[in-house]
Description:
Blueprint (H helix, E strand, L loop, with lengths): L3 H7 L14 H15 L9 H14 L3 H11 L16 H4 L2 H8 L13 H4 L3
Amino acid sequence: xxxxxxxxxxxxxxxxxxxxxxxxxxxxxxxxxxxxxxxxxxxxxxxxxxxxxxxxxxxxxxxxxxxxxxxxxxxxxxxxxxxxxxxxxxxxxxxxxxxxxxxxxxxxxxxxxxxxxxxxxxxxxx
Length: 126
């Protein structure tokens, strides 16, 4: 497996459909907060316009549903770095949905199983 997108291929294709017109980014934030609580990561308290826009942009570009977001968040937990186990870095939703950061994470660059890339410079992006 080379990227998190490839993990999503394992999921039935019916999940990877066009974003429903009633898609609500607040559901992604709620899902993140559940994931964050379980993994001792920062919660997202304010659903800013910028955060909602970033979530919508990713959802549209990736053709994701809430199920894809669920899988994506839980796939993050395999990264000791992103979970703050090897550095003082703590993953947040605001950091994750910034386009450059999302691309890096989605490509598997922060997952030790996929890459041996050093993360110190990349984490400073945001």
